[in-house]
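Worked example

This section walks through a single chain of length 172. The input is the sequence exactly as stored; nothing has been trimmed or padded.
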Amino acid sequence: MAQPMDPALVEALQQHLGLERCASAAYFAKAIWFAERELRGFAQYFKQEAASEQEHAGRFADYLIARGQAVLLHEVPSPRQAWASAEELLAAAFQMEVDVTSSLHQLYAMAERSADVRTTSFLDPLVDGQVAAEHELAHLMGRVRFVQGQPAGMLIIDGELSNGLHTPASLA
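Given that input, the structure is written out below as tokens.
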């Protein structure tokens, strides 16, 4: 028999699962936007992010099932598909990551308040990964801002993304 869970925490986990599904759709829309502009590296990067968010949703579904809870899938609204620039698109993506991070922190706080150690243990690696993803996207956004939309700079970044180079520099 599964350990009982606070109903409010279950509802919040369900909502977060939906947030991850929405993020997946949003990232796929961003991949399409870049593909339409022949920026393959950016398109590939955002397609991978879409798959990653879908995997996160799957982890939440698996966790809810393991805890004896039903998984409720709500309708995923159509994502935004038009942006004035790559910088605007990246700013929207970064804000989405901030929102996902905030949701994870709220889940963690709820789990701690209800003394649900299983849930905090489940969330620990997700929070770490989310912080890293937010940092990576901030780095990419900063690089795009630095080149100020200049085609040559965008093509250099696109080429780096095509080669899997998207992590910030590390001095450690």
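What to look for: The chain is about 75% helix and 0% strand.
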